[in-house]
Structure formats: C-alpha cells, structure tokens
Amino acid sequence: MKVSLDYSIQLPRLRAAYRVIVQPGSLISLSDYLAAADLKGRAFVITDKNVDKYHGKKIAELLSSNDGHLIRVPSGESSKSWNQAGEIIEKLTAHNAERHDTIIAFGGGVIGDLGGFVASIYNRGLPLVHVPTTLLAMVDSSIGGKTGINHGGKNKSGTFYQPRLVISDPSLLKTLDQRTYTEGLGEVTKYAMLNESLLSELQNQADKLRCFSPSHIDVLSELIAKCVQQKIAVVENDPYEQQVAGRELLNYGHTLAHALEASTNYKELLHGEAVAIGMNYAAGLAYKLGIVDEKLVTLQRGLLEKLNLPTYFEGDVDLNRIMTEMAKDKKGRFRFILPQAVEQMIVKEVDRQEVEISLSNFLTTR
Ligand SMILES: NC(=O)c1ccc[n+]([C@@H]2O[C@H](COP(=O)([O-])OP(=O)(O)OC[C@H]3O[C@@H](n4cnc5c(N)ncnc54)[C@H](O)[C@@H]3O)[C@@H](O)[C@H]2O)c1
Ligand SMILES: [Zn+2]
To answer: What is the dihedral of CA 158, 161, 165, 166, to 10 degrees?
Structure first.
C-alpha cells in the first residue's frame, strides 16, 4: 500500500528525532521499523481490552517476534490513573524490564497517554513507540510527546516525553465504532481550519471520509498524514507550549470544549464532539467581535454537519459552571483561540460579560 507519510520529526532543542509512518498495512513491518530505529530489546506492549479483542492476533505476532510481554488494562478514560500506572510498573518490574527494552503503546489516546507516562518514569525512561488505533490518536495524541494521567484533574499529572517511533496504520480503524471515528473528524476539522489545502481536501472528500471505508483508505491515509504534518510543524516550532500563538493554537475550539466536558462530568460528550461544538462557538464569538466574516462561520458549521459532528450542545448544563470551568486554568480570564480567516488564528482575551451573553445565546440555540 502507498506510504502517505514517512517523516523524521526533528526536535533539536529536546535532542530528539523520531520517525512517523502513516501507511495502511504498516503494522506488518513494525519489527523492521523497530530494528531500523535501533530498538532491539524486548517489547512490552500496553493495550486495552477492546483493542486486544479486535487486534489481539496482530499483537500476538508482534510479541512473538520481539520476545515481548502483553500488559492489558481496562478500556476507557478511568485507566489514566495512578493505580493503573502503578500496576503497569509492577508488571514491568516483575519482568525485569530494562532501559534497552521498549514500551509499545498500542491503542487510542488513553493508552498513548498512560503508556507514554509510564515509559517516561519507569527506570527514568524506556524507549516508547506509539501505535495509535483511533483516528484521534493518529492525528493528535501520538504526536508531540504529551503524556498524562487524570490525577488532580484531567491530564493534571504528566510529562513531556517524545516517542522513538510512531507507526500509524489506518487499516486498524476498520473496527472502530462510528461515534469514536466521527469524533476524530472533529480534531481533523480543527487542523483543516489551520491549513487551507487540508480544508479544501476535507470539503471535497467529505463523502468518502464520513465513515471508514476500506475502498477509500488511501484518501483517509493522506488526510491523516496532512494532519500529522500540521501538528508536527507546530510542535517542532514550540515543543513545550511556551510561545504565544505557538502550540496553543492547536487548542482552537478547546476553551469551551474542555469546560463542556468537565461540566457534564465527561459523560455526555466525546472529546472530538466537544471540540466541534467549541469551534462553532469560537467562530460565532469571533464574528460577534467583528474579527471574522460570517462566511467562515457558515462554512465551518456546514463542514461539521456534513461530517455528522454536533455544532450545538443539546443537553442541560449550568452556565455558571461552564463559566467557572472556562476561566479555571487561565487565572480567571477568558482566553480564546479565534479565527480571523482560515489559517489565521489569534489568541484573545474576551470580557466576561461578552462571553456570558454569547454563551447563554449559544446554549439555547438548537
Ligand atoms: N497527549 C496528547 O497530546 C493528547 C491529545 C488529544 C487527546 N489526548 C487524550 O486521548 C484520550 C482520548 O483518546 P481516544 O479518543 O483515542 O480514546 P480511547 O483511547 O479511550 O479509545 C476510545 C475507545 O475506542 C476503543 N478502541 C481504540 N482503538 C480501537 C480500534 N482500532 N477498534 C475498536 N475499538 C478501539 C478503545 O478501547 C476505547 O474504548 C483522552 O484521554 C485525551 O486526554 C491526548
Ligand atoms: Zn483535542
């Protein structure tokens, strides 16, 4: 199958460089990629029960050719905990995992964040390889080196720890349920708003991309590769999220998204769905502030709808709680990434009153 991306990320400030492959079927060659990256120790594969159920055979092959061990955790966000990290560390200890052995995080963003976190602290760091298995993990969480668990709050405890290799095999997405696939398209749309050529590709190919289809896997693969390149460009420039308008721009739509997720106790919305709603709100706010043309708001909303993503929140939620959540990490300020045009985002602090009025309207629009 065609290679959509074979790129070496260079992060000289972190003294890190690693290869990212996006290619249907690439998983078959994982052992060769490991050897090429000089990862010749044993493989400790961390995965979750769902992923193991669907892809256990491939994992077993991987283990047998790399003298490996399987570490399986329950599926879902609750596995991003100290308890689970501790259990994994105990298993690594029981098997005498050493510094030349490799941790392979084989799963969605939960496994990537948890496996990455453990890899970064066990024995002061083991080599880490990501094999993302959700669309969200392929375009987002496997790139950039953020790891974490939800101790002290969502993603509150974590590290920056770059992997040594990322192998994205889009054929793994075949077993993903439709809702989880669609939420990944929420993050994809975010990248598209940051990149004009990606946006036109997503608009033109939306019919082929709305659902996973083996016959359109090359189109999907190209799209994933472009999102990855978009994220890489930002991360290479600002690896620690220190610059104004650097890595922070990837948080477009996320101010409201995070607040909505927290206010509904992470039970009603998947992250990518919340991001879609958050982008629709942010674009509307930018329009109200006279920053952007109404055309962009309509274009973005139309695209989200075409991809079957939500654009408004339909449940019940307390406005005050959302306001509190939105200001929480920002020292009481309301800080948004707002579009001026496609590819042109700015970071802006908006008055409390302005936010309150627009949000109140937004939450009653269906
Ligand atoms: N580190 C980062 O930069 C970063 C960025 C974005 C999100 N995240 C984190 O990612 C997590 C969300 O990731 P996610 O959406 O991938 O969730 P997830 O890992 O929980 O996966 C969603 C569900 O799909 C299942 N699954 C995974 N791959 C499958 C496959 N191929 N076939 C069938 N089922 C499969 C999982 O078992 C799970 O039930 C959150 O914890 C979030 O904080 C991290
Ligand atoms: Zn996100």
So the answer is: 40
